[in-house]
Amino acid sequence: MSVKERFYVTTPIYYPSDNLHIGHAYTTTVADSLARWHRFAGRDVLFVTGSDEHGQKIQRAAAAKGVSPKAYVDEIVASFKHLWEKMNIKYDDFVRTTDERHHKAVQAVFQKIYDQGDIYKSTYEGWYCTPCETFWLENRLEDGNCPDCKRPVELVQEESYFFRLSKYAPRLLEYIEEHPEFIQPESRRNEMVNFIKSGLEDLCVSRTTFDWGIPVPIDEKHVIYVWFDALTNYLTALGYPEPNEMLDKWWPADLHLVGKEIMRFHTIIWPIMLMALDLPIPKTVFGHGWLLFDSDKMSKSKGNVVDPLVLIDEFGVDPIRYFLMREVSFGQDGNFSRRALIERTNADLANDLGNLLNRTLSMLNRYFDGVVPEPAAAPNEVDKALIDYAKGLGEQVDSLVKGLKLNEALVSIWRLIGRANKYVDERAPWNLAKLENKDELGTVMYNLLESLRIVALLIKPFLPETGSKIWDQLGLEDLEENSLADTTWGLLVPGTKTRKGDPIFPRIEVEREADEPAKTEPKKEEAKAEAKAAPAPSEPEGVLIGIEDFMKCELVVAEILEAVPVKGADRLLKLQVDIGTERRQIVAGIAQHYQPDQLIGKRVIVVKNLKPAKLRGELSQGMLLAATTPEGRVEVVSVSDGVPAGSKVK
Ligand code: MSP
Fold this sequence. Notes:
Blueprint: E1 6-10, H1 22-40, E2 44-51, H2 56-65, H3 69-86, E3 93-96, H4 100-115, E4 119-129, E5 134-136, E6 154-163, H5 165-178, E7 183-184, H6 186-197, E8 203-204, E9 206-207, E10 215-216, E11 219-224, H7 226-231, H8 233-236, H9 245-250, E12 255-259, H10 263-277, E13 284-288, E14 291-293, E15 296-297, H11 308-315, H12 317-327, E16 334-336, H13 338-368, H14 381-402, H15 406-427, H16 429-434, H17 438-459, H18 464-473, H19 524-533, H20 547-551, E17 555-566, E18 569-578, E19 583-588, H21 596-599, E20 603-607, E21 613-615, E22 618-620, E23 623-624, E24 626-628, E25 634-636, E26 638-639, E27 648-649
Parallel strand pairs: 1-2, 1-12, 2-3, 7-13, 12-13, 14-16
Antiparallel strand pairs: 4-5, 4-6, 6-8, 9-11, 10-11, 14-15, 17-18, 17-20, 17-27, 18-19, 20-23, 20-26, 21-22, 24-25
Helix pairs in contact: 2-3, 5-10, 6-10, 11-12, 12-13, 13-15, 13-17, 14-15, 14-17, 15-17, 17-18
The protein binds 5'-O-[(L-methionyl)-sulphamoyl]adenosine (MSP).
């Protein structure tokens, strides 16, 4: 019997000192999508999250509210669970550090390390950052403040237990060197290595000046340091310290997902605790970037925290999940703004995906009474190109997800959606219907529906609701029983009766946003390119121009040969076009409205005699015409394939 591959993934356990914001939802959404994907790919998955409820910060917050720490955390932890439910987060276990099982695990860890001589008693005299629950050496402070959160630190002097971190530093460095996959991405590995090399001090692992924590087993007037307590949660979920099957099966964890500012705890303190316990080190700790708001870190004091519940009520859950995973390159910082969320939703979800489903099912109703036809005609070259891409897609997405490249995984799924949209234009089913070419029409409709079936399966781990909605509209059953193997081409059964429903992503009206100042303005050059791609009336209405003015504009038909995104400019696409007499490069602000693939082969109208300009360092020799709808949707003006490149337009 072959053993199933397994995947144990964790999120940080969040402090219930306040409600969670969209930044916290980011990590958990990624973890959930990974867990769902690996399950879908046939792996055995354990996904654990939780709450980090002890420590001075929580005790103070509860006191300020005049309630007991436990009553305080109970209420906030309930709100965490409510949020995860609303976000469709399907965890297997939720560890609360106030759980009895966790209490036992932490005390066992402390006792074991103490018994073998790696914990000793001394006096701590130094600085402490309560918001970060971190001890700092004087020489690491910045202007006397915490180097992480920049807030004031407190001088602490108390009897404490110390953990011999310093003793393990050489062993840890060696481990990191021999296991390059342990700390990812690489830039963070270098940071951690430098930190270790600059000298590790023994770590203070108990406090006496407050009591909201787990008592030190050998000395009850001490409580265990909150990070020592919290990190242990990853073992609590496996029933540690009792030897048991869970522990054997799932340890070491495959992936701890953490924010970049808590890498140190996970890649220095945690592996050293595990070395002292004689347990294996987790395979990977991945430090992701922060989700910023207008390029600034979200924080309550700045008043710029974004509440995910409010967003879900307004936009639904999948646009938020999609935005978090698609917009940000995992590992880097990324920006959240309402405008960007709306643009992404309208462009990728409403236009590309929603319209593809809608128009395909409308045509199917018209031509085949909504019933999936036989693909009776042999595929031509255009059909084959679509089918070939769809065939390799499941494997491609699997390897991108394994490499934690979630945004690229989504891009590759959207490439199939883009290709299918282009395929509709190329195969023009309405023309086949006019010719009464039922066999070929059947093949074309089948190919579109089968592409949509595969898309539904592949996006379900990322966007569970959307995957199910597409599946239902396709008239299919038992979605949960399908796995990655079912993304094989050709499993859609002819004769299936589809169930066309409402559009799955109605466009978000941008007018509604007009009263609100935009949270992020497009960069100047991009805005210029967008204006060029979709010229807004610059003259007051009613000003007439003579024909000689219009004739100054040389307009020609151009065929788009290549289209690629411009690095670092999410609105721009770099196009190579054939204008009949020569090949030119044009930079156009249409990236939010088209996948590059959708443009290849299109015959567009270009202003040939426009002065060349540079946008983001890229030469642009001309501009293409596009129409902008009142809702802000941009469509390039195009002519049919019968009009050769270079033809004059006037
Ligand atoms: N309780 C500790 C973790 C203990 S894990 C053994 C903690 N909690 S936290 O609530 O402050 O933060 C939890 C996680 O949320 C961190 O990984 C942090 O990076 C992440 N984020 C907080 N704000 C964030 C953004 N704005 N963007 C992305 N992640 C953010 O630290």
